Amino acid sequence: MSGIFICYRREDGGAHAGRLYDRLSAHFGRELIFMDIDTIEPGSDFVEVINDKVGSCDVLIAVIGRKWVADEEGRRRLDNPEDFIRLEISAALTRKIRVIPVLVGGSTMTHSKDLPHDFAQLARRQALEISDTRFHHDVDRLIEALEKAIAAVQGQSKITEEPQLLRRDKAEAERAAENESAGPAQAKEEMQSMLYRPSQVYTSSPSDIAPPAESARTTSNEKASKDVHRDPEGAQSQRIKKNSWIKVGRTPFSPRVVLLVLVGTVAIAVARYAWINWLKAPAQEDQSQVYLDSRTGLLWTKSDNGRDLDWSQANEYCQNLRLGDYSNWRLPTIDQLENLYDPRGEPKIRKPIRVTGGFGMWSSNKEGSDSAWVFNFVNGVRNSYRMAYSSGGRALCVRRTGE
Which domain holds residue 203? Predict the structure, then answer.
């Protein structure tokens, strides 16, 4: 699998693309998902860079929002031949890469007459809608479609690789036939020479160890008999000193085998001890859904709740949240929210935390009896809103490690 390319406009479907990136990364692996081309070196041909990036993927996801074709003033972005979205989709269609339109924010599929001629065929591609209210259900459908598309691409690659596989299998079959032609006798002789090592075996009677060949048995017995007649006690001690085998019953074992058995036994005991301690250890945080800020020791959810809430609903959402094996989540203070502000990001919040939009994140700090403080990560400003106001308010939950 080469990868999945997410094509989107930051000011149009950026928040949805971010949430989509998190879900697809968790399913397919972060290294297989490409979302931003923001590392084009000065002097590079950006058209060639886009073609290379898109061409290395199996599927392109086109995230289409309400301002995908034109901006708020009605100026058509797609008419610009250097528009990145136009270049990315055109490159995918030209290379016969599967393009899946994904509709977000209540948008509808653009008609072919409203698209540039070089990718007007995009309007004929079956689109998939992802709504905020059933986000995870819709993304599950997208993942299923992606798996089918990738399987089809990999199946085609397997067909092109079949001749090489056949040649390799044929060569392996020929080598196996050559080995088999040597006959079972040669294999038996090699096995016996490995097990018994007659040059290192000393025995006082033929019944102790049966050598693999008659000549070896005769030579060994004659030598042992001569040694015993010459110096019985010395010969006996010499045989014990030279003998490289340990005899258990009537089966010989090499010291190397005994050592391997001992090492294996110790390894199994250590592994069992580690497994028992792992079972007794406390549950760890789910790193795919939470973010630990090492500067403050706070544990954050990696995304907000994803829909509009008033202050009471946001507070209840965090209190009822079950995430990372913890249930003691809460709304952050306004200072804690402001500490996440990062003017370099888009939106301006420290990665990998993502927010889905709205006027800001509710805090636990109240102003009076009917208002609470909100932090806006678009402009980095804190404001006070009525707690009953819900349009655009979101909940980003936090907890302190060790609580």
Answer: 196-280
